Amino acid sequence: MKTIIEPFRIKSVEPIRMTTPEEREAALTKAGFNLFKVPARDVLIDLLTDSGTGAMSSEQWAGIMRGDESYAGARSFERFESTLQEITGFDHILPTHQGRASERLLFEVIGGPGMVVPNNAHFDTTRANAEHSGCEALDLPIPEAKDPASRYPFKGDLDIQALEALIERVGVERIPAVMITITNNSGGGQPVSLGNMRAKSATATACA
Ligand SMILES: Cc1ncc(COP(=O)(O)O)c(C=O)c1O
């Protein structure tokens, strides 16, 4: 495998508090083994999520100063909107402050009792928002995903046959969307192949 160096310098460092195994065990026990209840100050290495762990680039920091904070009609929003339209091809762009907030809005529109939303594996906040709306959040991982000894390189893939069987069983009217989470967070952060994403889209489009 070819190794390259990281093509950037990290400009700021944030100290973290060292903890002992005994302190970590005590913090976990006190939280009832619910990671959302562990205070961040007691966490030495955060494996709960990758959210908020990346360093900002100098361009991102500079962007804060260039930002147009006008209450309405901000130039920054126009740049944001046109860039996302170009990347996604979607006409309508609605910014939210966090992923879980987007999911909340999405499921308010597409979810509800009687609906089924398949996914390679639902991320915890996606499942919570889907189920809160009353719909069923269904995980359809490939069999290799459940085999820790498997060396298959794309264990985050969605099981296309299981998706076809689901569409056959419940009908397209009850499936408002087919989701795919990349990387597959709840499936151990495993990667998803481009071929699997294309097959998923083809199956969903053919049935729509
Ligand atoms: C699929 C998915 N949904 C939601 C989230 C949560 O994002 P946020 O912390 O911005 O709410 C994540 C974060 O990893 C995610 O991968």
Summary?
The chain has 208 residues and is mainly α. Helix content is 38%, strand content 4%.
User: Which ions, cofactors or small ligands are bound in this entry?
Assistant: pyridoxal-5'-phosphate
| Assigned CATH class of the domain at 99-207 | Alpha Beta
**Spatial order of the strands in the main sheet?**
1-2
Indicate the proportion of strand residues. under 5%
* CATH superfamily annotation of the domain at 99-207: Type I PLP-dependent aspartate aminotransferase-like (Major domain)
Rounded to the nearest angstrom, the distance between the terminal CA atoms is 42 Å
For the record, the CATH architecture of the domain at 99-207 stands as 3-Layer(aba) Sandwich
Helix-strand pattern? HHHHEHEHH
Query: Could you report the average pLDDT, rounded to the nearest whole number?
Result: 92
Main beta sheet strand tally, sense and closure: 2 strands, parallel
Instruction: Briefly note the structural class of the backbone.
Output: mainly alpha
